[in-house]
Amino acid sequence: MIGRYKVVTLCGSTKFKDEFIDTLKRLTLEGYVVLLPGVYAHSGDNIITNKDKIILDDMHKRKIDMSDEIYVINKNDYIGDSTKSEIEYAKAQGKPVTYMYPHNKHTQYINAKIEIDDNQCISVTEVDQCAI
Predict the structure, then answer these.
(1) Is 0.85 topped by the overall pTM?
(2) Beta-carbon count within 10 A of 97 CB
(3) Is 76:59 a contact under the CB 8 Å cutoff?
(4) Cα–Cα distance, 124 to 106 (Å, whole number)
(5) Which of 8, 52, 58, 122 is the most buried (most CB within 10 A)?
(6) Where in the chain is the domain with CATH 3.40.50.450?
(7) CA-CA distance, 28 to 97, in Å (whole number)?
(8) How confident is the model at residue 50 (pLDDT cuts 50, 70, 90)?
(9) How does DSSP assign the chain, residue by residue?
(10) Which tens digits make up the pLDDT trace of 78-119?
(11) What is the Cα–Cα distance from 88 to 82, expressed in whole angstroms?
């Protein structure tokens, strides 16, 4: 063994299968052990049952348990409910969270009031907040 390799779990919508594979290759060459979904239901893989979904979601959280950190595939700043759950879980376990693309924190607000003042400064008033 050459050294201790950090373990990272990739999280994100399985509709971004190509991005998962590209990220797997890049992070592997950077020296990471990479864990990722085994089924890409939103990218044409076999149709899965609700029971399968529950098991796959639980298995992915076990992968997060084995990881030093998670890496979120958030193409177009898209983060679905399953990925939100994984991010919350990782944070609760004290795992660092890295995003593929800069995460626009304002997308976490639902029914937000956004104002731009005379100096072109933006202020956001939370009406309803979606946990991310």
Answers:
(1) no
(2) 16
(3) no
(4) 8
(5) 8
(6) 7-101
(7) 18
(8) confident
(9) --SPPPEEEEEE-GGGHHHHHHHHHHHHHTT-EEE--S--GGGTPPP--HHHHHHHHHHHHHHHHH-SEEEEE-GGG---HHHHHHHHHHHHTT--EEESS---GGGGEES-EEEE-TT--EEEE-SEE---
(10) 999 989 999 999 999 999 999 998 876 545 544 445 556 665
(11) 10
Q: Which two tokens stand for residue 87?
A: 């991010």
CATH architecture of 7-101: 3-Layer(aba) Sandwich (3.40)
Taking the C-alpha atoms of residue 5 and residue 7, their distance in angstroms, rounded to an integer, is 6
Is residue 18's pLDDT more than 80? yes
